[in-house]
Amino acid sequence: MSGGDGTRRVRAGRRTVEVHRPDKVLFPGGGDAKEYTKGDLVDYHRAVAPFMLPHLRGRPLMLERHPDGLDGPRFMQKNTPESYPEWITRVEVAKEGGTVRHVVCDHSATLLYLADQASITLHRWLSRADSVDHPDRLVFDLDPAGEDFDAVREAARLLGELLDELQLPSALMTTGSRGLHVIVPLNGRNDFDEVRSFARDVADTLADAHPDRLTTAARKKDRGERLYLDVQRNAYAQTAVAPFTVRPRPGAPVATPITWEQLDDPELHARRWTIADAVEQARTNPWSGLLNRGRALGPARRRLNALRG
After folding, report:
1. How far apart are CA 98 and CA 281, in angstroms?
2. Predicted local distance difference test score (pLDDT) of residue 7
3. pLDDT digits (tens, 9 = 90+) for 30-43
4. How far is CA 301 from CA 32, 141, 182, 194, in A?
5. How far apart are CA 62 and CA 29, in angstroms?
6. CB atoms within 10 A of CB 290
7. What is the distance between the alpha carbons of residues 89 and 105, in angstroms, rounded to a whole number?
8. What does pTM read for this prediction?
9. Ranges under pLDDT 70 in the chain
């Protein structure tokens, strides 16, 4: 439905969400990139909601907002404004010197409201609001020095093989930017310090085995052309881009879950899917039940220690 004031009203479950200025261009076209409006972003979120919400429910979010589109200023929003509707879930969590009230996206209406706010990218915590100190996701961010996606592909294969050896299930996701995320489901029994320490040791083991190709050096100047195995997101109050979220780049690329078999697709790259076709990929259920298989890290830690001698 559209109002005479240029406002569009979109039904989402039991609620109707008002979309203001739906024709506003958020992603300007140019070159090979298509132009997309706020209305397009809302339509994408409405279509992807059944696939995206399971990855958002119960988790504090940080919102990356571009009120004037990609060409305007960007700001990262942690605290929930008082003006947000009362039906949007909030969670108050501790921060240094106080607390912060994050949005939690439990329903499709919230997803559409955030799109109306030009929240282009949703960054989620790796823990849930009811157990904020204990993550149920571990994330390796494979970050190439440039646009060399073959290096990302190779690093993902090596990491996947090592995780298999440690008997940990893992999932792959394009970031919609330059690299891939490798995600390990956890059962939430380990705290952030234990999880990050384990992730760092896994990354160090891999980098030590392939020192010419991989690095865990945090400083860019120390990496050279090597791919960076980034485990910094595995900490309290750190975030990672949510599955199926849009990235603020030309053409509206989407962070998209894929299967390990798709890693061999020569057409694959970090921005392979956009809001035009990511829902088709979502319907193939690429992670198929994998994230319900959360593990404790104890047995994997013992296997890793044995490997490291």
Report:
1. 41
2. 94
3. 888 999 999 999 99
4. 46, 20, 18, 10
5. 27
6. 17
7. 7
8. 0.96
9. 1-5
